[in-house]
Fold each of these.
Amino acid sequence: MKKPVLILLLFLIYCTRQASGQRDFSDSQITKLVLLGTGNPNPSPDHSGPALALVVNDNPYIIDFGPGLIRRAARLSPSYGGDLSGLEARNLKTAFLTHLHSDHTAGYPDLILTPWVMGRDAPLEVYGPLGTGSMTEHILEAYREDIRYRVYGDEPANDLGWRVNWHEIEKEGEIYRDSQVVVEAFPVTHGTWPNAWGFRFTTPDRVIVVSGDCRPSPKVEEYASGADILVHEVYSQAGFENRTEDWKAYHRMHHTSAPEVAGIARTARPGKLVLYHILFWGSTDTELLEEIQAVYKGPVFVGRDLDIY
Ligand SMILES: [Zn+2]
Ligand SMILES: [Zn+2]
């Protein structure tokens, strides 16, 4: 292809990206963190259920299974015009789960079944809290007829890709290692939920920490100290003030306000603070940022679905 034609083509692709609202803040060719869903239990059409994809040298790792994750991942895959081949559904083989709340697991059957239907020919490897095994076995039981029909019917389906090897996290520390990433789990406080974890991912060139769902937790500060990216959940303090007293009590125990996240970032000093699992309650991006920046002056991003960091 002639050089001017190539430049024009790249420019058009860039314009399309901008028009579609795609935001790419990544500065690594090796490690890409994709926000598949920045939402929570509220079914906002603009905020898919909580889910992230870490893509390291094209190898994908999924973190949490909020509803919509497979279609969000498909958006950035070459099959649907994207350029992250790791996010082709059939390539999704390794996944990590912070806790079993429904907003983080309603997409689990999708993660088990859709990549298999699209050709995944190896079991899904899932690392999650105690109870992951029971949830997995019950999902497989619920879809037994679908699996049977695909494997033994006329569909050219393999008999491996629907299977799940689950691994339950029992203690803090390293839970996974391969040639691309080391994953450590650390406990976080999420009300009285007994098994909620945050994760630290160390890739060849980046350290990324994910809070999961939690109220301010000392372990997050400890693990995020000096990390390149801290992805943290958040709620708007202004929005919180308008909640009923019973909801206020719930959120105070389970989640982290914007000023509290700012305090954590001020101690941990991550290269980037990325907000997800955002409870806006009527606040805008700008108002949420102002709540953070009143306390913390470092780089902070209000995450949107399909952002890349
Ligand atoms: Zn949640
Ligand atoms: Zn939760």
Note: The two ends are 31 Å apart (CA to CA).
Amino acid sequence: MLTTLIVLGTPALLVVVVSLPWWLPDRIVALRARVFARINGDEGIPVPGDLVGVDRFREVYSHPAAGGRSEGAALSDLFWYWLSPGPEMHQEHLEAGERYDAVARVTRALLAVPRAEAEELARRCAARTLDGVRGLVRLRDLMMPLWAEFSYELVFAEPCPRAARDLIAANANDVVTSLKCTGLRHMDRRERLTRYLLGRLSRVRVPLPPGLTPLQQAHYLQGAFFNTAVVQMSEAMAHLLLVLARHPDVQHRARTGDARYLDQVIAETMRLYPLFGIAHRVTTGDIRLDEHTTIPTGSVLCFNYPEFHRAGFTDPDRFDPDRFDPARSERPVKELNHLPFGVAANRPCPAWRLAPIAMRAVAREVLDRYVLDSSVSHTRSLPSRGPCLLTPLDAPHRPRRALAYLRVRDRWEDVWRGLVQLVLGSYMVWDARRQRLCEHHFTSEPENRHARSDSRPDSRHGS
Ligand code: HEM
């Protein structure tokens, strides 16, 4: 009987196992969302959503009362956990006030590089990184050392030693890996970088924010320039290069066309794959929407970039750089729902000017050297790190076998990675909620509290 069952069951089991990549990853993603929501609670008002539509996204984001950054949102405990050590000194998470202003001023000074210098620096870092590279790569891994060197030179105005580059890339990789729940945090690795930066504070090319301890200054630099800058630029470039690899016609036009077309490709990449999924704010005053509806003080607003970037576009999931061609665009380009660097009135990205200049220079360097091919799936969170085949322009271009291999490997990696993300993600969300780094910071240091015009509300929103 048992033998009959096994014999009959074997083909069925085989079918289930072989078909795993086609159904398991989606179920794991759905399960992960449910587990996270359960541990994290259903905090937050989604924007766009029932209360605030797409048409008022910018207006509410830009509202002076939509300014609280960390205090009062359970979500902050998660981000503080992933960005440790020193999340309380990360510019992104500082509440408005003197300290924030001092830190933001230094960031602006470090990023204020003339265009030609920025292009030359990016090109030089790309040339060093790409030398000798060919074949199968993971784009995010390829890009990390490049942006580590770039950030180092921005901050210290001298070439980045190899050991420092490796330390910075390992730190940034650790941050982004844990953010995507494909690995746990390695605090020893991150603290090694803090110690390294502590030893180099006197070499930073502009005066650091006054009134901070050396450790706070090191944490500030680590947060803005060696976490955010390296992670965001590597992710943005991985998306851009993967888009080029998956759309040979676009790649050909970008290689042979003018700079404007490459800009359109960058804009459309950031529309479809914005680096921020959700940016949250805690309201520091009431926001009156109409005579019946007010968002009360202390509400958590969750601005959903992917949703906003889909709204108002025909066939929004299709990749089409011509959407940003002024001659073909459905609306004037400035009016499109497209905010890759946030809203100008509410803590936009300080690198909004420099980042596209540097990305363009690096993309040009890559396109001048390689044909890019890929057959992997492309999602906003890109946990695969962007597998891609790089064939030097002067070498024979025969990608068929590599593409077939990448397609199968990607499917199976999705299964394994989904399980890893489910387990590690649940653990980290639980651990972050247990440690409550942000909440403890504000309750133990009352001087850090954001001035609110009112006390916390009883209800989330109402009239
Ligand atoms: C293509 C690359 C990048 C993209 C798409 C990007 C995107 C963004 C966005 C959308 C925000 C605002 C989020 C919000 O409203 O909360 C932001 C904030 C920020 N970004 Fe970037 N970023 C990029 C590169 C960089 C780089 C190179 C740096 C270097 C220092 C940087 C530093 C920051 C900081 C410090 C903030 C917080 C600003 C504040 O709260 O005052 N970003 N970024």
Note: Confidence is low (pLDDT under 50) at residues 451-463.
